[in-house]
Amino acid sequence: MTQELVKITPTMAKAMLEKNVINRRIDERAISKWQKLMLDNDWQVTHQGIAFFDDGTLADGQHRLMAIIRNNKPIPFYVTYNLPKSAATAIDSGRKRSLIDGIKISGAAPWMEARHLQMVPTISYPTRLTDMQKIDFLESIRKHAIFAVQCFPTNRRHLTPSIIHAAIAMAHYHGVDEAKLIRFAEVFLDGAMAHPSERAIILVRDYFMNHTNSGAVDKNEKYLRVQRAIEAYSKDEIVKRLVQPQEVIYSAEGLF
After folding, report:
1. Partners of residue 113 on adjacent β-strands
2. Residue 41 in contact with residue 121, Cβ under 8 Å?
3. What domain range includes position 60?
4. Strands 2-8 and 75-83
5. Same domain, 226 and 122
């Protein structure tokens, strides 16, 4: 078994795919993922690349090769040759390493936790960020992301911490008073209102408890309502009902 680093052109990728005799069903999402990484220059060379069995057929890398062709752009890969056919049962059979695993192992952002990463899709919705874009974005709001997680460190059923973390982080980024945000998290968590101005918090808390769907659109609607509740509470508004805003109040525009 041998391996070499090769800058694979679209023409080379087409030739390699001609040897793709037996493989997994094509997954368009996987191709799109690799395409975006390559286009955004977020592709990184690792030991995992393209592989061929000892009979010359393609063993691994069909989606990466298709992404090269669609992007019409050469990309460097390690290419492994003469892989025993018996190794087919071991390819991609282990536990997939998560993004936070990679961050911890690489030392790229020692402060970052899964809870920080989990808030990013809510903030960036409907834009889907690559892994490197997620890391860069969190680095740009580092102190705000850390503050948000510290404000709401525990989980409560149906109260979806990632959405609250996201809303508090962006409110903090836009200069909302820290003491107000800490109190917002306390009331949201325990449901105990001490002042009429905190009614906005109870209203959004009730909304979470009564709307337990967790799809992307549902999360976005909750995120918008939390932002409105934070705005109302931070300005000491006495609200009787919480109307969902059409757009984010504490925007992340220009941060990714």
Report:
1. none
2. no
3. 2-90
4. antiparallel
5. yes
> Is residue 36 domain-shared with residue 121, that is, in the same domain?
no
How do residues 38-90 score in pLDDT, each as one tens digit? 887 778 888 888 999 899 999 889 999 999 999 999 999 999 999 888 777 66
pTM here is 0.69
Same domain, 85 and 108: no
Does the residue 247 lie in any domain? no
Nearest to 83 by CA among 102, 57, 108: 57
> Quick check: is 240 in a domain?
no
Extended beta strands in the chain, E state = 2-8, 50-53, 58-60, 75-83
Total residue length of the chain: 256
Collapsed DSSP state (helix, strand, coil) of residue 239: coil
Which pairs count as long-range contacts for 135-141, CB under 8 Å and 24+ apart, including other chains? 135/103, 135/108, 135/109, 136/256, 137/252, 137/255, 137/256, 138/109, 138/112, 139/109, 140/255, 140/256, 141/169, 141/170, 141/173, 141/252, 141/255
Number of domains in the chain: 2
Q: Residues 115, 49: one domain?
A: no
Among residues of the chain, what percentage have pLDDT more than 70?
95
**Phi and psi dihedrals of 83, rounded to 5?**
-70, 130
